[in-house]
Specification:
By secondary structure, the chain is α+β, with helices and mostly antiparallel strands. It is 49% helix and 28% strand. It is built from five helices and seven strands, in the order αβββαββααββα. The strands form two sheets. Strands 3-2-1-4-5 form a five-stranded antiparallel β-sheet. α1 (9-62) packs antiparallel against α3. The longest helix has 54 residues, at 9-62. The radius of gyration is 33 Å and the shape is elongated. Residues 1-9 have low confidence and may be disordered.
Length: 243
């Protein structure tokens, strides 16, 4: 007579296959969602970087623009309110988030100049002006460019509506390139994570009961008890083969 097989073997196998199919579907759906977010974020990073490249090129070229004498006709400061969220902490514990408002200050200048008998007005100090966190910094700029002060204006050779008082590359021009590059790098890292076995382990971990596991070759979590049992079975086979 043949040896009887355990009755629960086929049932357990079918249950494991069904569980694996559910996990595979969840991993696929999560990967699609992450890759869509990655695609949108990467395009956003490229768009931000493109603005920075254009500003940096314009700032670099501004040193060679035509120089004309102009005069400051208006000088004042302006402020804007920026809102951002920060963590609410009680010691080392985060208790939600709170809204924080900060004021940033910018100098507002108007200068006039004349080219070929035609008058123009400009407002930019540099190609990309960056607001300041303190009112005193903006005030110092206004004092330096007081009303009726003669200034050297750098004017675009083919478009007189583009002009600056301080030519050259500044952080405000390069900043978008740095932000865009960091954003694209983060999106690449996120895409690599989504396609790795780590995501499989994460999704599989939510469906596993508490216990000790190790990561298998396919990324799934395997119980330490199962590992020990397999080792024992292999040891029995090895011992039988040696005898």
């Amino acid at each position: 007579m043949g040896q009887a097989k355990p009755t629960g073997t086929s049932t357990d196998s079918g249950s494991n296959q069904a569980s694996s199919a559910v996990i595979d579907r969840q991993v696929f759906q999560l990967r699609v969602l992450v890759l869509v977010i990655v695609g949108l974020g990467f395009l956003g990073g490229l768009a931000i970087g493109r603005v920075g490249v254009r500003q940096t090129w314009e700032a670099w070229q501004s040193s060679n623009w035509a120089r004309v004498t102009g005069i400051i006709t208006a000088a004042d400061t302006a402020f804007a309110t920026q809102t951002h969220m920060v963590d609410k902490r009680e010691g080392q514990t985060v208790r939600g988030q709170r809204e924080v408002k900060t004021e940033v200050w910018s100098p507002r200048l108007t200068y006039s100049f004349e080219i070929d008998g035609r008058k123009y007005e400009g407002h930019r100090i540099a190609v990309a002006d960056v607001p300041s966190d303190t009112h005193s910094d903006a005030t110092d700029v206004v004092k330096r460019y007081a009303v009726d002060t003669p200034v050297t204006v750098y004017v675009h050779p083919t478009d007189p509506t583009l002009s600056v008082l301080e030519p050259g590359i500044t952080f405000g021009a390069v900043g978008p390139i740095i932000i865009g590059a960091v954003l694209c790098f983060c999106m690449i890292c996120m895409a690599c994570w989504a396609m790795s076995k780590t995501l499989v382990s994460l999704v599989d971990g939510f469906s596993k009961p508490p216990g000790s596991y190790f990561v298998g070759e396919d990324g799934r979590l395997v119980s330490v008890k199962r590992k020990s049992k397999r080792q024992k079975e292999q040891e029995r086979k090895d011992s039988r083969g040696s005898t």
